[in-house]
Write a structure and sequence with these properties.
The protein has 172 residues and is mostly helical. Helices cover 79% and strands 0% of the residues.
């Protein structure tokens, strides 16, 4: 049996060895991202939120590329996966520092605990949901779109919280 038809055009594939190399490269990029983005976050005059914002936008851009015909080309997709590894894994350190610094005085533990709980729930639930979505649609495009949507929602929520925090600080 062949692969099911893809609703967004012909499906391209790579062998297991090549896919494993892309996974290793993406993970390696994530390690580099954790180090580089944390160092940038520690030295940035624009604050940690700016680095978190850059990471979210970079993830949205990468996922958008995957939803285009160019994103179906193995070489392009491989490069995008490395990009997503850098920003999609690398965001974590600056995000944790941002959550910690943005928490109200005396509420750091609660804020960090809540953020980590939501993060862990997403880590456990999102992959099976994405897999089911790919199985139901015979396409990765809806999964990339859902991840983009979730990132856009996270971006909007954090932007609103950042604006409230800045207004509160400027009012005092």
């Amino acid at each position: 049996m062949g692969q099911p038809p893809c609703s967004t055009g012909p499906r391209k594939s790579v062998g297991a060895g090549q896919a494993a190399l892309v996974l290793v490269a993406s993970q390696g990029a994530g390690v580099a991202g954790r180090i580089c983005l944390a160092a940038w976050s520690d030295r940035s005059r624009s604050g940690r939120y700016a680095i978190v914002l850059v990471c979210m936008v970079a993830v949205i851009v990468g996922l958008a590329v995957l939803m285009t015909p160019a994103g179906r080309a193995p070489v392009v997709a491989s490069g995008v996966f490395v990009w997503l590894g850098f920003f999609g894994f690398g965001w974590y350190g600056p995000w944790v520092a941002y959550v910690t610094e943005a928490a109200p005085p005396g509420k750091t533990g609660f804020a960090l605990g809540l953020a980590m709980s939501v993060n862990q729930i997403a880590i456990v639930t999102v992959p099976p949901v994405l897999g089911l979505l790919v199985d139901l649609t015979s396409s990765f495009t809806p999964a990339w779109a859902l991840l983009s949507l979730l990132t856009v929602v996270a971006l909007a929520v954090t932007a609103e919280a950042e604006l409230r925090t800045r207004r509160s600080v400027s009012d005092h």
